[in-house]
């Protein structure tokens, strides 16, 4: 079977996949660059609310929460972040009576609010939501999950097309600058050089998704190889004492200060009267993270999970998340991620440019010539593995195969008029 025919078939698959994914990858690159700099940007954006004059004494956190409740009747506390240092405001993340997420900044020396911001309208939250769900909620998240899986297929087909089978590495890694083939050469060289890193970032982003991330979490937990419970409501129960009130935010903040000093942990009450409170410290480096569950009636620490309590899958995912967010090795991680995002942006734009230049007049798709030969077995197996890893992408592949089969049956069985 001719190599040219096989490559034509793979190229056709790569073309349609890339044409569909390019807009999504452009969004991922741009929003990813913005969100990378959250640690630097957010303190600057909200400096007027975060920084407060240092006073002699601090108002208890319980009294600060009372002030927030006065301003937002019916508000529910999602979590509170105590100030890390002197001269900084406390932050209360609440759901108000109308169901909106609000971030309330409170001066810990006076107990007065210094500012309020809709949490879902904060710049970095918008970038985060656009990056993960296109501001479309669960539907957008599902679409981005499918796109991530197809991104793995895009990498595999691109490597097959551009790989220098005859050992012509110099030609591949030194793209020509002559006008006609320069877009193709630049696109291929960037893809070959960045494919491994892009693959890593797609694989580390997929565990955050709803369907695939959910089954990875469930699978690793059942095997005892996942991360300890920490995000979201605590699964552990408090020992209720009849007529005894819950411990105050000040008690929980004191526990946090004693166990993880010098941090800005998230402190949250349970959503009911039965479960434990959670003190969460999502550290920039995953090895420093802490997930502490506290009995809300006695103030006793029920579980204190640290890095040693992570399973191998949980540790791998945690390192991947930190690398993806640019916090694993500080500013150098951010610089690496920016370069990668710019590379993805360049490949997407050069791919679209090639399509635009080569399309026939008055035609939009203009796919490269295809063939009826099957895809190479090795490539089929790789695509199968990706579809099993991302089931939503696998379902979309099955749907396309079914549509293609049905279309072929209709064409072949069409009766003459």
Radius of gyration: 26 Å
Q: What percent of residues adopt helix (DSSP H or I)?
A: 40-55%
In round numbers, the mean pLDDT is 87
Q: What's the number of extended β-strand segments?
A: 8
Strand order across the largest sheet? 1-2-3-4
User: Given the C-alpha coordinates, what overall shape results?
Assistant: elongated
Total number of distinct structural domains: 3
Written as H for each helix and E for each strand, in order along the chain, the element string is HHHHEEEEHHHHHHEEEEHHHH
For the largest beta-sheet, the strand count, sense and barrel status come to: 4 strands, antiparallel
> How much of the polypeptide forms β-strand, as a percent range?
5-15%
What does this structure look like?
With 417 residues, this protein is α+β, with helices and mostly antiparallel strands. It has 3 domains: 3-36 and 130-207 and 331-412, no CATH class; 57-127, Nuclear Transport Factor 2, Chain: A, CATH 3.10.450; 229-309, no CATH class. The chain is built from 14 helices and 8 strands. Strands 1-2-3-4 form a 4-stranded antiparallel beta sheet. A 4-stranded antiparallel beta sheet has the order 5-6-7-8, covered by helices on one side. Helix 6 (137-162) runs antiparallel to helix 13. The chain is elongated. The protein starts with a helix and ends in a 5-residue tail after the last helix. The mean pLDDT is 87.
């Amino acid at each position: 079977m001719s190599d040219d025919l096989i490559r034509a078939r793979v190229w056709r698959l790569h073309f349609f996949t890339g044409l569909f994914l390019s807009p999504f990858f452009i969004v991922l690159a741009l929003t990813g660059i913005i969100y990378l700099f959250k640690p630097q940007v957010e303190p600057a954006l909200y400096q007027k609310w975060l920084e407060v004059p240092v006073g002699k004494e601090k108002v208890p956190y319980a009294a600060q929460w009372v002030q927030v409740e006065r301003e937002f009747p019916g508000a529910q506390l999602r979590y509170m972040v105590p100030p890390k240092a002197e001269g900084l405001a406390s932050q209360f993340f609440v759901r108000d009576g109308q169901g909106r997420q609000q971030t309330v900044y409170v001066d810990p020396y006076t107990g007065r609010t210094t500012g309020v911001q809709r949490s879902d309208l904060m710049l970095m939250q918008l970038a985060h939501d656009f990056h993960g769900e296109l501001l479309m909620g669960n539907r957008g998240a599902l679409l981005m999950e499918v796109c991530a899986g197809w991104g793995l297929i895009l990498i595999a087909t691109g490597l097959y097309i551009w790989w220098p089978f005859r050992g012509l590495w110099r030609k591949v890694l030194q793209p020509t600058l002559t006008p006609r083939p320069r877009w193709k050469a630049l696109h291929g060289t960037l893809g070959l050089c960045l494919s491994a890193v892009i693959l890593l970032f797609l694989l580390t982003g997929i565990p955050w998704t709803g369907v695939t991330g959910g089954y990875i979490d469930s699978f690793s937990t059942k095997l005892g190889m996942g991360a300890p419970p920490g995000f979201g409501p605590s699964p552990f129960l408090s020992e209720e004492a009849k007529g005894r009130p819950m411990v105050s935010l000040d008690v929980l903040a004191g526990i946090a200060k004693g166990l993880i000093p010098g941090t800005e942990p998230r402190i949250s009450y349970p959503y009911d009267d039965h479960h434990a409170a959670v003190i969460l410290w999502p550290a920039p480096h995953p090895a420093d993270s802490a997930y502490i569950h506290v009995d809300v009636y006695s103030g006793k620490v029920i579980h204190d999970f640290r890095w040693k309590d992570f399973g191998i899958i949980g540790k791998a995912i945690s390192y991947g998340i930190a690398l993806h967010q640019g916090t694993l090795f500080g500013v150098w991680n951010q610089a690496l991620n920016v370069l990668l995002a710019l590379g993805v942006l360049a490949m997407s734009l050069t791919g679209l440019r090639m399509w635009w230049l080569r399309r026939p007049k008055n035609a939009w798709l203009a796919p490269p010539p295809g063939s009826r030969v099957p895809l190479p077995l090795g490539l089929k197996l790789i695509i199968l593995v990706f579809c099993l890893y991302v089931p939503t992408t696998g379902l979309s592949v099955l749907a396309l195969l079914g549509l293609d089969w049905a279309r072929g049956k209709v064409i072949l069985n069409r009766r003459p008029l």
